[in-house]
Design brief:
CATH topology of the largest domain: Aminopeptidase
Helix content: 25-40%
CATH architecture of the largest domain: 3-Layer(aba) Sandwich
Mean pLDDT: 96
Radius of gyration: 24 Å
Distance between the termini: 23 Å
Oligomer: single chain
CATH superfamily of the largest domain: Zn peptidases
Number of domains: 2
């Protein structure tokens, strides 16, 4: 089949920004991508679940399968009046595309779509009978993450679809384009702790059971513990108490209940099961030492720590970055979580994208030069990967 004209990643970024796709609204973004990809021969599947829109696109039927992953959903805009250009305008000014999602991460999606289509148009990879390219694009990365990438992965498993490696287009560069790529992520665990006692007058403490002292002692022990000293590719694990709430407006009343929340960002020396056991034991010990007080713990694990060890995939991506940026990127595992934490259970995964200093902010904007360079990196990744077959 004849291929259409090359895709301009900057124009595609602007068009995607104009789609008001605040989680979980599709806003036209996935429809735009489906219409863009179909003329290049991609088979398009909508994989919607739980009210969340998702897109799976694939070309080629052989092995190996190289996958890109990204999201088109965005966080809310905040005060729209505070924006220099309307947040869904996709305006071009000062060498940048302005708007919500321009950095995180519609530019990344536009870049890998443009790179893949350009590569195919010139006869590369699947167009020459070599393997396949798959694109996983979700509408739930900024939300609960229950029906986005997980839905696509479940659908793929049910259909017998697979991928051998995956590159996620999250913004990973820190100070300058190409200075950092992610080869893993820390795990994240949030614990909600509730201490329940008995309300009473402060002048008669023997008639009450104050839940605050045992809760505070427990939190002090948890926050003061050294979890580890870091590992070869990870910084030390960190426990941070984020809230302590009583909701007691009176100064002469012992409260009946106190609540606290903590978050642990943990490295590959830890796992969530062991951390939960530790927190629950501290809660039981604190309650045992405080008659009349019960302490309950509810935990949500956003993801386990994972590492894609330096090897063929990291070398291909790092070399492609160096081709375009002129220097090899640092291999990093810091920062928050991403959908790579789900993909790592299926295949090796790394992340590389723009400088992320403006994401989620008022006046979010992406450098046009960086968008073009990112597209070049993704194109070089595909060339290096399929040339090795």
């Amino acid at each position: 089949m004849s291929m259409p004209a090359a895709i301009d990643p900057v124009d595609l970024t602007a068009a995607l920004v104009r789609c008001p796709s605040v989680t979980p609204e599709e806003g036209g973004a996935l429809t735009l991508l489906a219409d863009t990809l179909a003329p290049f021969g991609f088979a398009i599947e909508r994989v919607d679940r739980g009210g969340v829109p998702n897109l799976y696109a694939k070309i080629g039927s052989g092995d190996p399968v190289f996958a890109f992953s990204g999201h088109t959903d965005v966080v809310p805009t905040g005060d729209e009046a505070a924006w220099t250009h309307p947040p869904f305008s996709g305006a071009t000014a000062d060498g940048r595309i302005w708007g919500r999602g321009s950095v995180d991460m519609k530019s990344g999606v536009a870049a890998f779509v443009a790179a893949a289509c350009g590569y195919l148009a010139e006869g590369g990879g699947p167009a020459a009978g070599k393997g396949a390219i798959a694109l996983l694009i979700t509408g739930d990365e900024e939300g609960p993450n229950l029906h986005g990438t997980l839905a696509i992965l479940d659908w793929m498993a049910a259909r017998g679809e697979r991928m051998d490696v995956c590159l996620v287009g999250e913004p990973t560069s820190r100070e300058g384009f190409g200075d950092m790529m992610k080869i893993g992520r820390r795990g994240s665990l949030t614990a909600h702790i509730t201490a329940r006692g008995k309300e009473g007058h402060v002048a008669y403490p023997h008639r009450a059971a104050n839940p605050l002292p045992p809760l505070l002692r427990m939190l002090d022990r948890l926050a003061g513990a050294e979890l580890d000293q870091g590992t070869a590719h990870f910084q030390p694990s960190s426990l941070q108490v984020t809230t302590v709430d009583v909701g007691n407006p009176a100064t002469n009343v012992i409260p009946a209940e106190a609540r606290a929340t903590l978050n642990i960002r943990f490295n590959d020396a830890q796992n969530s099961d062991a951390l939960i056991d530790w927190i629950e034991k501290e809660a039981a010990d604190a309650a045992e030492a405080a008659p009349g007080v019960a302490i309950d713990v509810a935990v949500r694990v956003s993801g386990e720590a994972f590492l894609t060890a330096p090897g063929p995939l990291t070398e291909i991506v790092a070399a492609a970055v160096e081709d375009v940026a002129g220097a090899a990127p640092k291999l990093d595992t810091g920062g928050g979580t991403s959908d790579a934490r789900f993909i790592q259970a299926v295949c090796p995964v790394v992340e590389f994208g723009l400088v992320g200093d403006r994401m989620h902010q008022v006046d979010e904007r992406a450098s046009i030069d960086e968008i073009n360079r990112l597209t070049q990196v993704y194109r070089r990744v595909l060339e290096r990967y399929f040339d090795a077959i």
